[in-house]
Specification:
Blueprint (H helix, E strand, L loop, with lengths): L13 E6 L13 H18 L4 H7 L1 E12 L8 E11 L3 E10 L4 E14 L4 E2 L4 H4 L8
Antiparallel strand pairs: 1-3, 2-5, 3-4, 4-5, 5-6
Length: about 150
Amino acid sequence: MSEPRLLAPVPGVFDHPLEVSPAEIDELDHVNNLHYLAWTQAAAKAHSQAVGWPIARYLELGATWVVRSHAIEYLKPARRGDAIVVRTWVTEMGKVHSLRKYQIVRRDDEALLATAQTQWVFVRLATHSLDRVPEIVRAAFPVVAR
């Protein structure tokens, strides 16, 4: 299996910068795996907000994205004080779902620390049932086929 390659920033790809905090470090002196998951969710929310879809707008619509599944592959450890970028993009947009991918990269040396993906489904808030992704939402997230 070949090593994952960094995705160069292109339209539709969103970079979410952060810095590793002491609270994210575990007893093995690296970032605990649960924080990578939190970083992916923070990046997805920031991306949505950046394209005009903050949570308040979804609430007005009466529907929003919820997670169906996550997958993360850890490649190298992140350590205290590392400057990180969580690069994210939508790679599939279906009738009621989307697939979002991520690369977690250390900024100073461009080391790829982890790759991840999240399967999201669009849900009507009043009924908690699947709903079609409205065209206005779909248009905000161009599909990056990678």
